[in-house]
Protein 1
Amino acid sequence: MQTGFIAVIDLGTFMIKGIVGRKNESNVISILASESIDSGNAIRRGMVYNIEETGASVRKLITMLENRISQKIGKVYVSLSGQSLHTIEFREYKQLLSSGIVTEDVVKQLQLSAEKYTPDLKRSYSVTDVEYYIDGKPERKPVGVTGTQIEALFQIIVGRPNLTSNIKKSISDKAKLEIADYIVGAKASAKIVLNDEDKELGCAFVDFGAGTTTLSIYKRGVLRRMVVIPFGGKNITKDICALNFTESDAEQLKIKFGKAIENHESPFFSSPFSSKPDVDLKELNRVIALRLDEITANIKEQIKLSGYENELGSGMIITGGASQLKNLVEYLTQKLKMPVRKATAKKTYINNASELINNPSFTQALGMLYLGEENCEMESQLVEDEDNQVDTVKNNIKPDSKDRSKDQKKSRKSQKGILSMFDVLGGMFSDDDDDDDDV
């Protein structure tokens, strides 16, 4: 049996997803297991709201994954999202030495400056793309180029300083699971969906989630702007609830009958729910369109603010669970006057699990899997040490020794020490949790 794998937890507003996968030498992923659990109201707009419920869901999800792979998960990568996330620019200059040649060390120093940068009232969560200029001229590969000064323009994703606080309480404290690292969701989605040509020609990459809609603008191979709009598919569902439907029924209506653009069908449809009124499809789609108009207006304004409104050669590329709304591509094409296409994870990165690759709601989780590097399998060293100590106890018992009383005293002392160790180890693995953190 092969050992070693990467495990990710995607904390979505609608669903919490867990995936375990293994990479080969070519960095291609084989999916070992995947599971999902309804988020309920524990996560709102991409952020943990109820610590207790989130922790319990993650622990249940991990158990389900472990049962599927017959191996223990020791740590996980966790998604990072939320409406406060956005990009800022950070510039750093460096005078070159008398030789005037840009070295690897110079580039590393610039990168380190960006990683250490602390913005006012915010926290840096990821240093993404960078552009280099030598004596004012752009240079994509600066190492080895001569000049007098090098400038680096970094794009840094920042957000509220306490964005990871509730995640840590849920996963580390409640679910008793180590966090390997936090991965910005929008960065993960873009990594596994976009190709170099999309980024070079320029595109508006939109991840339609349940709680938020994330827009990323790329041009000349670099992320230029990333912003989170605090509306998503769940807002549409709640709007449908105003037509006298429960949230569960409203979600099903949206999926089965909802359209971004109306066609000329019969305005009424016999309700699929017992003891419920007939569905007025015209009214249903009107409600959907109102919320979509608001989300789209925000997207349009953010594209304009990026300064690349007329430079997006690849148009708009959409993904995410809420991108599955019928006729959404046609709707956005009309509203934004640009080509729009749906996209999911590229098959070149994953060699199995086509049902996940073709499902846009799993795009972010698969991207996280691709960015993850640490082995997440639980180490078995403690168990091995325990077994070795038991063997030592057995070997120390010598009933036929001439000095039996001495040996028995030593044996009892040794066994007492070992039992104490077992008590400590038992405490380490105890499921008892007296911490009652509330939100």
Protein 2
Amino acid sequence: MKNLIYVLGLGLCTILSMQTHANIKKHIEEQGFEFVKQIPAPEGLTGWAGHNDQHPGTVFISKDEKYYIVGDLYNSKGENLSIDAMNTHVKEAVLDDVWKTLEKSTWIQDGKKDAPRVVYVFSDPNCPYCFQFWQQARPWVNEGKVQLRHIQVGVIREESRGQVASLLLSKHPEALFAEINEHKGKKKLDNLQKIPTEIAEKIDFNQSLMGKYGFFATPSIIWKNRAGEFKSAQGMAKNLKEIFEE
């Protein structure tokens, strides 16, 4: 999953802070850092690997709990000692959190709830490749092998956002979404001019995830393979069996 791993691998900047209260670890957690695993550290420090908003990082706390450093640890040879700790202890935790975040996005269910494989798809109502992907996925979806979760974004045309809002506000979003795809977008959604705040926030959140995970095209696809490894693809997928079976 090259795009996602690259974005999530961006390090945190180094910060030095003095604290007078006893529970400095709790203070760091309040700043958004999630502790995952204690790691080796230089004398006088306690090291931790974790992540902040799904960005892996390391934290080092002084034994007297008056100081802490957020950032990478280097030895005298200039070798980054934090990388191995983040790859070993944090990568899986971050990707698990990514999956939970995708679950919280606003998506259209396409397929059986108990399908053995779930695939997330960022899609725009004016994306021809999204319609093509939907069509080509029918054998796996109709057989109950795959559930697609279409995360709705409005990024291709000016009217896309209003159309997404119209879809999400419809009485039967799943049925309407299927109808639009069956007609390959020839049947257009209404372009809603005044989008309720609640719906606007959902669309904004969906689009923020695209940027956060390094996606810039639709469809953008995220799934887990048989081994539970994260995979992703952008644009029209060339190997559907890789996405739906392997």
